[in-house]
Amino acid sequence: MIQTLEWTSSGVRFIDQTKLPTEETYVTCTTHQQVADVIRNMVVRGAPAIGVAAGMGVALGIQNSEASNVSALESDFNSIAEIIAATRPTAVNLFWGIRRMRDKFDSLKCRPIPEIKAALVEEAQRMHAEDIAANQAMGRHGATLMPERGGVLTHCNAGALATAGYGTALGVIRAAVEQGKKIHVYADETRPFLQGSRLTAWELMKDGIPTTVISDNMAGAMMKQGKIGAIVVGADRIAANGDVANKIGTYTIAILAKEHGIPFYVAAPFSTIDLATPDGSKIPIEQRNSKEVTHIAGRQMVPDGVSIENPAFDVTPAKYVSAIITERGIARTPYETSLRSLDRTDR
Dihedrals φ, ψ of 344, to 5°? Predict the structure, then answer.
């Protein structure tokens, strides 16, 4: 399995996703500030992976704290959490990871400092293991929705590289293939950061799963030609009503799927579901550097001075979503009811 990130004795180790697919290199962070930079600069990306990275960043920062009492350690915790929380606003898993570490810290305030530090490292490692297990469970649920054979379209990268391992949308595809289904993946290139052509194709080629990369504007034509039997994507935040924030371009694909009568599935761990956000209009959308649009592989592709829009995500209304696949089961419309029902399964 691809090691997207891991806790090591030297620090938190990440595969550098900005260098893929041509270079398989790794970055080791020894401070929480470095972890924050890795998240901000998309060395690590994908909502579940960001959540685990946040937990590991907090644990690393606390490990490095020189606080001599719990009050000072809590002050350090707050500072560490603030730095990590400021990295990427849309992926709710980031804040879930920080909140989980805060809850663990709050439960340990009466313990000696070395014990607190060790417990936070253990919690971050537990988050890593739980994410892999959740993705595998999600894959088993979602595989039942995949066609027995034919094309499945995916957008962006929701694979092992976007998680601690196995993947969300690609986890569903992997599980379907493991069950013997004959699936051919169509991977949108996913402009402007090219997560589909660089990352999804790289992962699936490693797994030996047949894959064709298409440019984003080919998706509708592929559907019309009957090459796509289902669509499965990941998510960075899902509102209580089932509206889905995912990589820019997802909304377009969902509308095309509806027009062509193709099921459009979303696969995400329950930590991506934000029941405190009523609908997609309340989800903050990250705006990224215009250079991601103006340049490809370091070469400028647009004239100087032209205006650029570069939102990292868009919101797909729930009415276009056929089902939401989680590790706890599959939610269907009305999502206000089904998502809250899944929330109760963990209590």
Answer: -75, -15
pTM over 0.85: yes
Q: What is the per-residue pLDDT for 65?
A: 97
Residues 285-298 pLDDT 10s:
999 999 999 999 88
Could you say which of 136, 169, 201 is where a domain stops? 136
Tell me the per-residue pLDDT of 106-131, one tens digit each, with 9 for 90 and over: 999 999 999 999 999 999 999 999 99
Question: Do residue 108 and residue 229 come from a single domain?
Answer: no
Task: Report residue 273 as tokens.
Answer: 């579901």
DSSP assignment string, 163-218: SSSS-SHHHHHHHHHHTT-EEEEEEE--TTTTHIIIIIHHHHHHHT--EEEE-GGG
Report the alpha-carbon distance of residue 188 to residue 209 in Å, rounded: 15
Are 194 and 155 in contact by the 8 Å Cβ rule? The answer is no
Report the run of H or E that residue 296 belongs to, with start and end.
strand 295-296
Any idea which residues carry the catalytic annotation? 236
Residue-number span of the structural domain to which 34 is assigned:
5-136
